[in-house]
Design goal:
Elements: H1 10-22, H2 26-38, H3 45-57, H4 61-73, H5 80-92, H6 96-108, H7 115-127, H8 134-143, H9 150-162, H10 166-178, H11 185-197, H12 201-211, H13 216-221, H14 234-245, H15 248-251, H16 254-267, H17 271-283, H18 290-302, H19 306-318, H20 325-337, H21 341-349, H22 360-372, H23 376-388
PPR repeats: 9-43, 44-78, 79-113, 114-148, 149-183, 254-288, 289-323, 324-358, 359-392
Family: Belongs to the PPR family. P subfamily.
Keywords: Repeat
C-alpha cells in the first residue's frame, strides 16, 4: 500500500495490527506498532485499545500494561474498553488481584463499569479460586444499576459447577429461567458434564429425561460403566422441577438434548462412554447431526486418538452427513498435536475439493502446528496466504 503511494489511515493500521495479533505474530505486531506511533497516531484511543487487546489475548500482560502507561504518557484518552480489556486479560491469565487494581484505577477516572467487565471479574475470581468474593462483587455490581445477563449466569453456573457446588449452580439455573433467559447448549452441557464428572449419573439422566420423551435412564442402567444409585438429590430435583416452567423443555428437539449429554460426557473426559451411548441411541432411532459427530471427533482429537476421530468422520459420510469446516478443523488440530504436519497439510489442501473454505481457525491451527515443529518457513507461507485471502 505504501509502495503504491497510498498512506494507511487509522482504520487500515488497526485492522492490520489486529490481523497480526490473530496470527499470533508478536514480532510483526510490535514492528507495526512502532510505525503507527511514528506516523503520528499517538492520540488514537482505538489504536491503543487494539494494541492492548492483542497483547492481552496473547497473555503478554507486562507489555500490555507498558502500552497502557505509554498511552497515559502521550496524553491519549483511555475509555471503558481500555480498562475492561486489561481487566479481562488479567482475569484470563489468573491474576485477579491485578484485575481489581485496574478496576480501582478506572473508578478513580470516574468511568462507568460495564456488565462485560463484571463478567470478566466473576470468571477471574472462580479461576483464581476466590469464589468467596463473588457474592460481594455481585452486590456491588447490582448497586451500580447493572443486572445479570445471560453471560453472567453462564459464568456463575460454570464457576459453581467447577467447584462442585452444584446446588448453587442449579438455583442459578432456575433463577435464570425465572428472569426470562433461556439456557443455551453451553449452560446445559456444563451442568450435565459436571454431574457426570462427579459420577452423579442418574441425576444427569433424570434432568435430560425431563426434556425428552426418551428413557435415557434405562439406557444407562444397561451399562456397567454407570452407577446404580437411583437416589436423586434435592438440588437435582429443583432443576427437574424448573424445567416444567421453562419454555426450553418444550422447544428443544430431542437431538439437541442428546447432544448435550454427549458433550457433557466428552467434556468430563468420558469419551468412550459418549461413543457407547451414541451407539445405543442409534439403535433406538436417534438421528445424529454435525454437532454430534464434531463433539466426539474433537474429543478424540484432543485425546490424541486421531484414528478414532477419522473413523467417526467416515461414519458421518456413510450416513450422508457432510462434515463442515469445524469438523475438519478438529481433525487437522488432532494431527498437528501429534506433529503429523504432512498429513495435516494434505487434509488442508483437500478442503476445496470438499466444498469447504478454510477459516481463521484453520490457518491458526496449522500455523501453530508448524511453529511447534520449528518449520517457520511453512508457517510464514500460511500467514501470507491467509493475508492474501483477506482472512483475519
Amino acid at each position: 500500500m505504501i509502495q503504491r503511494g497510498v498512506t494507511p489511515n487509522e482504520v487500515s493500521y488497526c485492522t492490520l495490527l489486529d490481523c497480526f495479533f490473530k496470527m499470533r505474530d508478536l514480532e510483526r505486531s510490535m514492528t507495526l506498532w512502532k510505525e503507527i506511533l511514528g506516523r503520528g497516531f499517538t492520540k488514537s484511543t482505538v489504536a491503543f485499545n487494539t494494541m492492548i487487546n492483542g497483547l492481552c489475548k496473547m497473555g503478554e500482560m507486562v507489555e500490555a500494561v507498558a502500552i497502557f502507561a505509554r498511552m497515559e504518557e502521550l496524553g491519549c484518552l483511555t475509555d471503558e474498553i481500555t480498562y475492561r480489556t486489561l481487566i479481562d486479560g488479567y482475569c484470563k491469565s489468573g491474576n485477579v488481584l491485578e484485575a481489581f487494581r485496574i478496576k480501582a484505577l478506572m473508578e478513580r477516572q470516574a468511568i462507568s463499569p460495564s456488565i462485560e467487565m463484571y463478567n470478566s471479574l466473576i470468571d477471574g475470581l472462580f479461576k483464581s479460586k476466590k469464589s468467596t468474593d463473588v457474592t460481594d462483587l455481585l452486590v456491588e455490581m447490582q448497586s451500580t444499576g447493572l443486572s445479570l445477563n445471560a453471560v453472567t449466569y453462564g459464568c456463575l453456573i460454570s464457576g459453581w459447577c467447577d467447584e462442585g457446588k452444584l446446588e448453587k449452580a442449579f438455583n442459578l439455573y432456575s433463577e435464570m429461567i425465572e428472569m426470562g433467559f433461556t439456557p443455551n447448549l453451553v449452560v446445559c452441557s456444563k451442568i450435565v458434564s459436571s454431574l457426570y464428572k462427579f459420577d452423579r449419573i442418574n441425576e444427569a439422566t433424570v434432568i435430560l429425561d425431563k426434556m425428552v420423551d426418551f428413557d435415557l435412564l434405562t439406557i444407562h442402567k444397561c451399562s456397567d460403566k454407570f452407577v446404580e444409585n437411583d437416589i436423586i438429590s434435592q438440588e437435582a430435583q429443583k432443576i427437574v422441577d424448573s424445567l416444567d416452567k421453562s419454555a426450553m423443555c418444550d422447544s428443544l428437539p430431542n437431538n439437541v438434548v442428546y447432544n448435550i449429554a454427549i458433550a457433557g460426557l466428552c467434556k468430563s473426559g468420558k469419551v468412550e462412554e459418549a461413543r457407547s451411548l451414541l451407539s445405543t441411541w442409534l439403535s433406538r432411532g436417534f438421528v445424529p447431526d454435525n454437532f454430534t459427530y464434531c463433539t466426539l471427533i474433537h474429543a478424540y482429537s484432543v485425546a490424541g486418538n486421531v484414528d478414532d476421530a477419522f473413523n467417526l468422520r467416515d461414519e458421518m459420510l456413510e450416513r450422508e452427513i457432510i462434515p463442515n469446516i469445524t469438523t475438519y478443523n478438529a481433525l487437522i488440530n488432532g494431527l498437528c498435536k501429534l506433529g503429523n504436519m504432512g498429513r495435516a497439510h494434505r487434509l488442508f489442501a483437500k478442503l476445496g475439493q470438499k466444498g469447504l473454505v478454510p477459516n481463521a481457525v484453520t490457518y491458526n491451527i496449522l500455523i501453530s502446528g508448524y511453529c511447534r515443529v520449528g518449520d517457520l518457513n511453512e508457517a510464514s507461507k500460511l500467514r501470507e496466504k491467509m493475508a492474501e485471502e483477506g482472512i483475519s
